[in-house]
Amino acid sequence: MPATAHPIADLYAEHHRWLRSWLRQKLGCSDHAADLAQDTFVRLLTQEQRGTPVEALRQPQAYLATVAHGLVVNHWRRLEIERAWLETLSSQPEPLAPSPEERTLLLEALCELDALLDRLNPKARSAFLMAQLEGLSYIEIAGHLGVSERMVKKYMAQAMLHCLQSGLAPA
Q: Per its UniProt record, what Pfam families does this chain match (predicted)?
């Protein structure tokens, strides 16, 4: 086989078919498997641009599977968010329903928010969501989480700082 100009091209040529097959088994859909296989190699290109050399991979299939698994989890999470969003929309009166463009933008924003909150400590995330979505007081949140009110204040400060640093200002 002739040498290619780029190590990722070699990796792609050697492992793309295997990765697509592996993803098809995980997802049960060859179209989604093909998309996520491509996304896996795009992720490798991005990582290489940030300084992670592909030549250093000792176990390329294990590495590809790890990257692809993360993309599968993100795919499932996005589908779950989309299902919940569509369910919420279906309960809205027609005049209040957003346009298709607004739906797409809102779904993207929900996915970004989910990813942002996923990077928080689980208790800080729970405290933030209970305060923002359920309107619970810090004392009520403390009871739910089994921590002190002071700890809830600390969790809320962490969550708000995290939101501000990411450019999202909580209400």
A: Sigma70_r2, Sigma70_r4_2
